Every structure is written in structure tokens, then in C-alpha cells.
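Question thread 4412

I'm putting together a teaching handout and wanted feedback from people who do this every day. The idea is simple: show students a protein as raw sequence, then show them the C-alpha cells that encode its fold, then repeat with a second protein so they can compare. Below is the first pair exactly as I plan to print it.
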Amino acid sequence: MNTIQSQGTALITGASSGIGAIYAQRLAARGFDLLLVARDEQRLQDAATQLREQHGIQVEVLTADLTQKDQVIKVEQRLRSDSSISLLLNNAGVASDGLLANADMEQLEQLIQLNVTTVTRLASAAAASFAKAGRGTIINIASVVALFPERFNATYSASKAYVLSLTQSLDAELSGTGVRVQAVLPGVTRTEIWQRSGIDASGIPAEMIMDAADMVDASLAGLDQGELITIPSLPDASEWQAFVAARHVMAPNLSRDKPAARYK
């Protein structure tokens, strides 16, 4: 069984709570030093103290609002310059509520900045640094709505479809470099993202909501098993494989010199 890089530093965005905080605990237990990135410095410092005591690792806190370009660049430059970093977890993200036609465009621009632009800039910096070193792991947190956009609002679903596509393309670009790439597609997960986004999750059936710890543990198991795409709640992996196979069946006919007969 292949396991993730067993030494070096894991840079985790959105590390102060929820999925990011649990990844920090699990990666610390695997022997990673940590670089924790989020806006809430006090929560980061509290988490860092606990992680140092529990695991005897080095933990650094980097306070940054990743909706702000100048602060994203600060994290990006750290990725490019710090050769000890061997894993990037692109976890920071936000959801939104409501219809696109009625949306607050300022709020949606922040969502796109965080879920798309920030993820891209940090993945690019990590890809360059890790490929040069011939090792490293990039984990991007997407969502199952990338596969079923009709079930959620347009902008969030599209942003997570972007993360899925980015990961698939990046994996192809990094082939042969020694760099591992994974996209994680959680379903509904019990975290603070719902309250922060103003979404009422009380109507979601309990059997559809996964604890964040279970989600993270499944995702790391998928990484250990060499998965490019991990869908923690999907019982039958062959369904995903069939989905991928269907894309490849279409591939030879997606770009041809003449329109299909049905358009004549």
C-alpha cells in the first residue's frame, strides 16, 4: 500500500475548524509538521498548542484571509520558497445560498476568489515546488455537487466542478514528476460552513450528513489507496469508474471536422 509523504510540513488552508482542523490532527499523527492557515489567529494558536502537545511536532500559524489577493500571494510565496513543505491541503472554501438571479454579486465574487482563484494559485505554487523536489502531495477539497450541479446553487456547484477539473488536469500535467494529486468530493458534511453561508441544513435527512472526522479518515484512506478522485460516501467505486469510462468513450468524437448528422 502506498502512503503519503511521511515527513516534511503539511500546509493546510481553512485549518481553524471543521475539515481542516481534523486533517491537521490526522496529518500530525502521521508525523507531519504543520503550517496552519486561516483568518482566526486565536483559534489557530489554540489548535497549534494542542497539536504540539499531543504529537510532539512543529506547528506554525500563518494568519491570512484567502479572499484577499495580497494575503493569498503571501501563502503562495511561502509554498514556492519553503522546501520543507511536502503536502498542500487546499481546504478553505465557502458555500452560498439562493438563486444566481437573486445573488449578491459581491458575495459571489468572494466565493469565486476563495473556491477557484485561491485554490488555483496555491496549487500552481505547490506543483512548481513539489515537481522540482520530485515529491509531494496536493489535496483539493471539491464536492459531490461537481457531479450533480442541479441539486445545489449554480455558483458553488460550478466552483467545485472547477476544482475537480483542475485536479484531473493537474494530475496529467504532473505525471512522472513524483507528485501525488487527489480531489476529495464530500457529500453533506457536518461543519460550520452551513451556518457561515446562511444555509438552513435542518431539512437535510440525517442519513445524508457525514461527520467530518469520518469524511477525513475516508479521504486519507483513499489517498493511501492511490485514488485520484475520492468520494467518501460512494459505496461502489465501479460507479465512478463507469462515469470516467463514459467520458473516454465520447472523447474521440468531441472534436471533429464536421457537425454531427443530427444538426444537418
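The second pair follows. I'd like the answer to focus on this one:
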Amino acid sequence: MSVRDRLVSVGTELLEEHGLAGISLRSIAGAAGVSHGAPRRHFPTYDALLAAVARRGLEDLGTEIGPALAADDLRAAARAYLAFARERPEMFALITRHDLLEGAGGNLREITGRWFADLGATLARTTGRRPTPEEVLALWSGVHGLAALTSRRATEPTGIDPAAALDVLLEWVS
């Protein structure tokens, strides 16, 4: 594995173990077994390294939701999104931090933009009508909001299964 790939892998592991506030260039370099200056040879900034870690997370999430969207299975795609947020909350938090990662590289918006288009196409095929961009964003926002609440365990006190709430949300679009 190249040093660059090792830094991204270790960064991913540390992020998921300690959260964004618990990692730094120095901690990633140390855990990767390289000098504290080595990350700068592969990433011009700390944010560029975070963008590479986020890209890996987005690729992982894409592996989960992509087949469901391609099969026009909105429920499976939404459940995969929810499961990713629940199982990998720190990565989920990072990949949704466009404010932090903007301009850092990784072409992250290329991935999420493609998902937005895929979601719109899936909605068109499953509902028989072309949704407006606002309708697509409303659905994504609903699913994302539930995933964000789930990732931070905010739904637990309600006693409501987030997947059941997701089913209610998806009934509105079918």
C-alpha cells in the first residue's frame, strides 16, 4: 500500500474511532508509521487529507446505495443510507460537511451530484412522472434528516424505529 493510501486508510480508522475532533495530521502520521511531515508530501492541507478520507466514505456509501437506486428500489436505497449513518456515524458526519471540505479536493460534489441525479431518475421511473428538483431535494432532505438524527442516536428516546419512520416518509412519494 502506498503511503498516500495508508494515510487515507489510517485517517478513516481514526476518524471512525475518535471522531473528527479527535484526529490530526500528526495523529494520522503517527498511526500510519510515517514522519509527521509525510502527510504534507501527499496532501497540501489537512482538509485535503480529510477530503480523501471523505471520498473513501462516499465511495463506501455509494457501494451500498448505488445498486438499490439502479434497481429503482427507493426503500432499499434509503435503508442503506440510514444503516450507513447508524453504523458509521463519524464518517457520515464528515461526508456531509461540505462547508469544511469545499475546495479541499476529492471531487466530492461529483459523487453527491450524481446521487441527486440518480435519485431524480429513480423517482421518475417509480412514480411515472418527472419530479422537480425541489421534490428530489425534499425527499433527500427527509431521508438525510432521519439518518442524521439516527447517526447521533437522537431518535432513541422516542422509541420509534427509524426504519418505520423511513417507511412513512417513502409512502408519501409512492
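Top answer:
Good format. For the second protein you could add a caption like this: The two ends are 46 Å apart (CA to CA). The longest helix spans residues 46-70.
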